[in-house]
């Protein structure tokens, strides 16, 4: 199912390579619920918790921490000071809440470890055996650590992640800039590269970057595949091995 002239594959990490999307969803919920309880008490408004089923995909999935934090708060009509990247977890700012969420992610990863999707490892090895170059393009600032723990580091020629985006001031997904930077790092034009994403924002980024193929990876079901197609995925699979099958 892969175009014959494809030269590279760009992979999101959480939910495509590793089963860490659930860890991020749990961390977002714990962080936001703690903040929202305090906000409702202080402002005298009802407490409405973060709902992973309805809030995760549209507001935070696949986005940089500060973008996801800001997006969800705006959905609740809440505005906080931006703060800065150095804000600690106890500061009530966009960056401070992002730091709080990141601390929870690291705690959960330390406790649960990292589960790798075996179909992704098989697909990675297969496309590299065909001579394709590979890059990981993730909004996570913990990409290096997760790849090392998962044993996937050596399967990538380049990495563009949350740290890279901050250092180079790259807009996060759904803007295409991070994927375009990944293709540039491989010295491959977008029309010769495929994007593999499980997040709606990531699929939108791949479509905006005019990549040769945008693959939606549906690990959760429940209508997510249809949402990925609606966002612009060329094809949706729940096992990356399907992409290697002859048509």
Automatic annotation (TrEMBL):
Transmembrane segments: none annotated. It is an enzyme of class 5 (isomerase). Its cofactor is Mg(2+). Its EC number is 5.4.2.6. Keywords: Carbohydrate metabolism, Hydrolase, Isomerase, Magnesium, Metal-binding, Phosphoprotein. It catalyses: beta-D-glucose 1-phosphate = beta-D-glucose 6-phosphate. SUPFAM superfamilies: HAD-like. One of its GO terms (molecular function) is hydrolase activity. InterPro entries: B-phosphoglucomutase_hydrolase (IPR010976), Beta-PGM-like (IPR051600), HAD-like_sf (IPR036412), HAD-SF_hydro_IA (IPR006439), HAD_sf (IPR023214), PGP-like_dom2 (IPR023198). PANTHER family: 6-PHOSPHOGLUCONATE PHOSPHATASE (PTHR46193), HEXITOL PHOSPHATASE B (PTHR46193:SF18). Belongs to the HAD-like hydrolase superfamily. CbbY/CbbZ/Gph/YieH family. This is Beta-phosphoglucomutase. It comes from Thermomonospora umbrina.
């Amino acid at each position: 199912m892969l175009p014959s002239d494809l030269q590279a594959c760009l992979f999101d990490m959480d939910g495509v390579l590793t089963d860490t999307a659930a860890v991020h969803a749990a961390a977002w919920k714990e962080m936001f619920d703690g903040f929202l309880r305090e906000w409702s008490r202080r402002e005298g408004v009802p407490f409405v918790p973060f709902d992973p089923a309805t809030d995760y995909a549209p507001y935070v999935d696949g986005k940089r921490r500060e973008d996801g934090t800001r997006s969800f708060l705006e959905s609740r009509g809440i505005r906080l000071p931006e703060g800065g990247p150095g804000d600690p977890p106890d500061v009530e700012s966009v960056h401070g809440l992002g730091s709080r969420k990141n601390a929870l992610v690291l705690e959960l990863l330390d406790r649960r470890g990292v589960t790798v999707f075996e179909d992704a490892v098989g697909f990675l090895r297969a496309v590299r055996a065909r001579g394709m170059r590979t890059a990981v393009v993730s909004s996570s600032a913990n990409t290096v650590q997760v790849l090392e723990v998962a044993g996937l580091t050596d399967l990538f020629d380049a990495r563009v992640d949350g740290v890279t985006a901050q250092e180079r001031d790259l807009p996060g997904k759904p803007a295409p800039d991070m994927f375009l930077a990944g293709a540039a790092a491989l010295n491959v034009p977008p029309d010769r590269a495929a994007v593999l994403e499980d997040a709606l924002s990531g699929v939108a980024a791949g479509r905006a970057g005019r990549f040769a193929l945008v693959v939606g990876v549906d690990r959760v079901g429940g209508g997510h595949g249809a949402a990925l197609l609606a966002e612009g995925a060329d094809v949706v699979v729940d096992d990356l091995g399907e992409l290697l099958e002859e048509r």
